[in-house]
Write a structure and sequence with these properties.
CATH class of the largest domain: Alpha Beta
Helix content: 25-40%
Number of helices: 9
CATH topology of the largest domain: Rossmann fold
Oligomer: single chain
Radius of gyration: 20 Å
Strand content: 15-25%
Strand order of the largest sheet: 2-3-1-4-5-6
Number of domains: 2
């Protein structure tokens, strides 16, 4: 393929900067979990964007967080690992944040030798007449150290094609690494677990999300009839179990119905979803559990 370009780009930013929303907007499908809460993305998710003359593998990294427990230590390591071996990095900055970069991100950026593209995110929420240059000056951001500068609104799909063109310029020439019809290198089990976890985040708000892990216990694809998916929602305390289940099972039913609808869309087939809630005490501080749930490399 003449002048065909293929490569990897990592998306770096603070929690809730809009990284997963951007990935989903670029792909045109819901690949990464999204909520209004930070720390929605916990593991690297590779989304595959294919065009006529390019294939870009987007690495959606967890947000940079303080290493307050073993889970956050694993998340920080996932960020570091995800920045290695890529062809460029998108530094996504939420223009609505008071401190849109953060010291941790600055430290990471200072040691990166990979080309970095500065991307102002959520510009739909910015005041009229928004300017990336003025925003950078106001927040002590040196745009000259970046290899490119863009502004986007994932919600309104503004600036996305221009961003893709900029990323493509940093991709090396080479054939596609994946089937152009593929949207991610993750399997359906992983994506189903992410959908369920997202719904727990969405419906329980601040009460239990960071103590939640989802494990797929069974995933049966059937030629006839509904596919069968069984999953366990792991939380850390008995009191949280009551929140997730709700009075008379109402909350768990809401989570299940919403998750099932998204899983059916993902799999393009009817699905029977069975959810169980389990108390796994202090799993965020347990290395074995973190490996079991996929947050630490085995």
């Amino acid at each position: 393929m003449s002048d065909y370009r293929t490569g990897f780009v990592s998306i770096l930013g603070l929690p809730n900067a809009g990284k997963s929303t951007l990935v989903n907007a670029l792909i045109g499908e819901k690949i990464a979990a999204v909520s209004g809460l930070p720390q929605t993305t916990r593991d690297r998710i590779n989304a595959i964007l294919s065009g006529e003359d390019f294939q870009i593998v987007l690495v959606d990294l967890p947000g940079l967080v303080d290493a307050t427990d073993k889970l956050n230590e694993a998340l920080r390591q996932n960020v570091v690992d995800g920045l290695e071996g890529v062809d460029c990095v998108v530094h996504l900055v939420d223009v609505t944040m008071a401190d849109p970069v953060g010291e941790d991100a600055r430290d990471v950026l200072n040691v990166l030798t990979t080309p970095v593209i500065f991307v102002a995110s959520k510009v739909d929420a910015a005041p009229a007449g928004f300017s990336v240059e003025a925003f950078a000056r106001n927040h002590d951001i040196d745009l000259s150290r970046y290899a490119g500068v863009r502004a986007v609104s994932s919600i309104e799909a503004r600036g996305l094609s221009e961003l893709v063109e900029t990323i493509r310029d940093f991709m090396p020439e080479g054939p596609p690494l994946y089937d152009p019809d593929d949207l991610t290198d993750r399997d359906l089990r992983f994506l189903a677990a992410e959908i369920i976890r997202e719904k727990v985040f969405h419906f329980t708000h601040q009460e239990v999300p960071y103590s939640t892990a989802v494990e797929i216990d069974d995933f049966k694809e059937r030629k006839r009839g509904k596919w069968y998916v069984a999953a366990s929602i792991h939380i850390e305390r008995d009191s949280q179990k009551g929140v997730v289940i709700g009075k008379g099972g109402a909350m768990l039913k809401r989570i299940s119905q919403a998750a099932r609808a998204d899983i059916e869309k993902l799999c393009d087939t009817p699905v029977f979803l069975e959810l169980h809630v389990k108390v796994t005490k202090n799993w965020r501080k347990n290395d074995a559990r973190l490996r079991e749930f996929g947050y630490k490399r085995k």
